[in-house]
Amino acid sequence: MQANTTMPPAKKLLDQVREKIRYKHYSLSTEKTYISWIKHYIVFHGKHHPAGMGATEVERFLTYLANERHVSSSTQNQALSAILFLYRDVLALELSWLDGFERSKKPKRLPVVLTQSEVQALLNEAATAPEPVGLIIRLLYGTGMRLMEAVRLRVKDVELTRREIIVRDGKGGKDRVTMLPDRLAEDMHHQLVKRREWHELDLQLGKADVWLPDALAVKYPNAPREWGWQYVFAARKYSIDPRSQAERRHHIDEKQVQRYVKKSAQAAGIYKPTSPHTLRHSFATHILQAGYDICTVQKLLGHSDVSTTMIYTHVLNKSSKAVVSPWIICKQTGWLNAYSLFQTCRK
Q: Which of 59, 117, 256, 345 is most buried, taking the most CB atoms under 10 A from its CB?
């Protein structure tokens, strides 16, 4: 009997990209972003296969993004990362031109920081937001967490007794510990009580499973249903996991928090561009103002390099506050005396 030598059909390119991304345990948001940019790159060049294109096509696409789409440098670098991932990790092409691309330089801009009175006004307006959105907004300022770190928070990582929150798998895959403010401990306790009621209902319905990272569900089969692994801020409705197709309760949609932060800032009369990340910047700046050292702030924020944290010292700008404006000197001494003083200083 002749053996069946029929080869399985070759996978489509974008399916290969998805497979490689999941093999490397990249997040779902990274998967969606990379797929979108790779598809855009291919369509831009008339749907030619990327293996038949090279440095010229990549440079032409990046130039189009900058000159015609007017994207920011960070967005352009994001597109380049997706294209390089395609060539290096999916197509496994070792081409000399891959190492020749320089990423566009990101402008060095100071972060937007709210004053303490502005933060208080924003939080007062956010008190009208439905829970747990309001609690998440308060946590962002009270702990310095990033938005996704807050919405992905698990029950086991909240230490009410020690007033601590353990941030797992933060930016760069790092864990860290931050504080849980006393003023938010009771709110967090109420949230956990309510969340436990939802979990008991989910167990009865057979929908208590939660997504676990790094194949932990395979190593610990019962873990997805355990209370400690549940999301603190879970969504009200069940949803279908786009990867496993399992129906379960995911964490709350981060877009809800983004909308209410913006809405609260507008209602508070804050004219600065305000997002959830603005509260993290404000947290860092205000604890520096309170006299805490830069290394403490670095640990709380989870920065690998203290130079990243140093940007908040520029926001404080204490040196410029010690300088007296020449306008004040002229007003106090008169223009003639001010000019004489200026000449003396030059000597």
A: 256
Place of tokens 């130039």: 63
pLDDT at 99 over 90: no
- Residue among 193, 184, 208 nearest 155 (CA): 193
What percentage of the chain reaches a pLDDT higher than 70?
84
286 noted as active-site residue: no
| Residues 65, 66, 72: CA angle, nearest 5 degrees | 100
Residue 277 falls in the annotated catalytic set: yes
Of 12-26, 78-92, 121-135, 332-346, the least confident: 332-346
Give yes or no: 280 in active site: yes
Is residue 195 part of the annotated active site? The answer reads no
Of the candidates 146, 199, 281, 286, the residue annotated as catalytic is 146
Compute the distance between CA of residue 268 and CA of residue 120 in angstroms, rounded to an integer.
Answer: 9
Pick 278 or 332 by higher pLDDT.
278
Its sign, for the CA torsion 242, 23, 223, 192, is negative
Cα 199 to the chain's mean position, in Å? 27
Whether the model clears a pTM of 0.70, i.e. scores above it, the answer is yes
The reply to whether 148 and 38 lie within a common domain is no
The per-residue pLDDT for range 284-324, each reduced to its tens digit, is: 999 988 888 888 888 988 888 888 888 888 777 654 555 55
Domain count, the chain: 2
Let me know if residue 198 belongs to a domain: yes
Domain with 20 in it = 13-100
- Give me the catalytic one of 251, 280, 281, 286: 280
Told to judge if 171 belongs to the known catalytic residues of this protein, a careful annotator would answer yes
Q: What angle do CA 162, 144, 228 make, to 5 degrees?
A: 45
- Verify that 230 and 181 share a domain, yes or no: yes
Q: What is the pLDDT of residues 127-159, one digit of tens each?
A: 999 999 999 999 999 999 999 999 999 999 999
Residue 272 annotated among the catalytic residues of the structure: no
> 255: which 2 tokens?
């877009």
Distances (CA, A) of 183 to 6, 26, 134, 172, 180: 67, 36, 14, 30, 8
B/e letters for 308-340, b = 16+ CB within 10 Å, e = fewer, are: ebebbeebeeeeeeeeeeeeeebeeeeeeebee
pLDDT at site 1? 46
